[in-house]
Every structure is written in C-alpha cells, then in structure tokens.
Design goal:
Blueprint lengths: L1 E9 L3 H13 L2 H4 E10 L6 H8 L3 E4 L5 H14 L4 E5 L7 H12 L4 E5 L13 H18 L10 E5 H6 L9 H11 L4 E5 L14 H14 L1
Parallel strand pairs: 1-2, 1-4, 2-3, 5-7
Antiparallel strand pairs: 4-6, 5-6
Amino acid sequence: MGEVSIIIPVKDEEVGLEFLLDDYRSSSLKDLYNVTFIFVIDKRTSDSSKKIASEFSENVIDQEETTGKGSAIRQAIEEWRKNPTQMIVFLDADGSYSFDSVSKILKALEEGADLVSGSRFLSDRGRPEGMSRLHNFGNRVLSTISSVRNGRSISDLCTGLWGFNSQSLMKMNVKSRGFDLEAELAGIARKLELEHIEVQVDWSQRKGGSSKLRSLTDGFIIFLRIIRT
C-alpha cells in the first residue's frame, strides 16, 4: 500500500474541512493508500478549523511566525521531511476539489510523472460553474504567460491541487510566501527538468467562507513570480 502525505493549509475553512472530512470517509482513497494528513493552521483563524482538522490527523501545525499559503506549505514540507512518504499532495482546504480528483493525481504519479497538477480547463466546457469571470480570465492569462516563460504548456497554473513523488519534492526549494506558490512550482519544475503533467479534475465552488485571493494584487505577485523563477 503506497504511502501518501496530504498537505492542507488552512485559514477559516470550517465548512470546507467538514465537506472534505465527509468526502474522505466515503472515498476509496483510505483503502488504497496509507494516508497521512498534515494541516497548517494560520494563526489568524477564528473558527473551528483546527478542531475539525484534528479529526483527520494528529499532524496539526500552528502557523504562528508567518502567514500566507506559500509559507504554510513550506512549513508543512519541513514537517514532511522528518518522515517522508512516497507521494505528496497539496490540497486546498475549501472543499472545491474532491478525493476522487486526488486519486487521479496519485495514479499519474504512480505511472511515472514527477509532478502532477489538476486542471479545471483541459476539457472544452469553458468557465467552471461558480468561478468568477475575473478569476477565470486572470488564471488563463497567467497560465499562458507561464507556458511561454517555461516553454511548457500549462492550462491551469492557479490550481489548488498538486502532487509530487518523494524524489522531486526533496529537490525543490520553495521560497514563495503567498499565492505565487503555484507559479514557483511550475518554474522549479522547468529548472529541475522534472516531468510535469496535468490531469483533468472536477472542481466546484468553495464550501463556505470567502476566498483569500486578492485578484489584482495577488495576480501581479503571481506574474512577477513567473518572470523571476
């Protein structure tokens, strides 16, 4: 049975985590893999996210000295390095991706990919239901810029679902602190000449809470990360 670590950064996502908990309990993932969850809880969290996360796992880390998604992932990677697993998944906490989609990521890793990201745009269905026109447009523009910069086609740069094999993640030195994380991952994959593939995954509107993404400000930061990585 393959060993998998699922890393989830959290800030005020109690509804999304409740959805994920129910989805995980009903999925086949736990029967196919030895799954360990690592949660990083932003110090600004004011709801029951930490309590719900503890129902998944004992690996619930307080993100006290830093804030931001990238910083949370970096902290979780350091925890993972203490007891590395064969495969690792980064998953958003808002319930927009299911564990069936996680299974697709793991399957692609088992078939030999170094790095796998879940795309919401590989099909011809257009803008996903529930996604704002601004986020849809911004993501597609940033994905195009990343494709040109890295010389590798990517349809969904800002996806919240990524997977890695152990050897690949060990080589990666992530520096981003915020939502520029995904842009950096794509750039590092180019530099390390890792095989990065996309798989089509289902996506639904976030479950409760509100998006932490500041469309224009974070979009510009993501653009700079694409250019600089």
